Amino acid sequence: MIKTNLTILCSSILIFLVISCHQTPQPEADYNPEERLKELNIILPEPPQPVANYVNGVRAGNLIFLAGKGPKRADGTELRGKLGQDITIEQGYEGARITAINQLSVLKEMLGDLRKVKRIVKVLGMVNSDPSFVEQPKVINGFSDLMVEVFGERGRHARAAVGMATLPRGQAVEIELVVEVYD
Questions:
Q1: Which CATH number is 100's domain given?
Q2: Which residue has the higher pLDDT, 24 or 177?
Q3: What is the tens place of the pLDDT at every residue in 32-68?
């Protein structure tokens, strides 16, 4: 009798574990990054199109790898220049924020719904910098701060913020990222 009850208990636990492992976690009902964008008065533009032989993003399993984007405004102009030379930290911060909006537009196009974002995993921020400029993290905070404003704790990510001798078309920043998504 004890052996039978123990067998039933073990079988029940095993079934529970198997079912639990196969359930795909879903976002909470109140998780709505698109509503948060509205609250921030941010309208996502059409995603910037690649300027060479690559795509905006590639999905591999539950990860999306987004190609580098820069601070292209909705009117088509870009923030161009070199930090520490002709661009201030504040202007660079704003450029990184514009870049975040561009990356969000790519994610929206790829996913259809930003509630499918489980976590912003990794950010690589490249800053067009004068050799003496060492405040790259302050510039890329424009990107990181917006990710946290939109996604909350899910927006906190690992990050590198590095200086570059130049960037395509002389843009002030270029940022790529890795995002984990729900099925």
A1: 3.30.1330.40
A2: 177
A3: 999 999 999 999 999 988 989 999 999 999 999 999 9
Q: In the predicted model, is pLDDT for residue 137 greater than 60?
A: yes
Residue 14 lies in a domain: no
In a domain, 2, yes or no: no
Relative to beta strand 63-69, strand 173-181 is: antiparallel
DSSP state of 141: H
For 112-125, what is each residue's pLDDT tens digit? 999 999 999 999 99
For residue 119, how many other CB atoms are within 10 A of its CB? 18
CA separation for the pair 46, 50 (Å, rounded): 12
Domain, as residue range, for 112: 33-181
Backbone φ, ψ for residue 130 (5° rounding): -65, 145
Per DSSP, the chain holds a count of helices (H) and strands (E) of 4, 5
d(CA 119, CA 139): 22
Number of structural domains the chain divides into = 1
Q: What is the pLDDT of residue 10?
A: 46
- Report the run of H or E that residue 58 belongs to, with start and end: strand 57-60
Residue 173's nearest CA partner among 145, 146, 131, 137 is 137
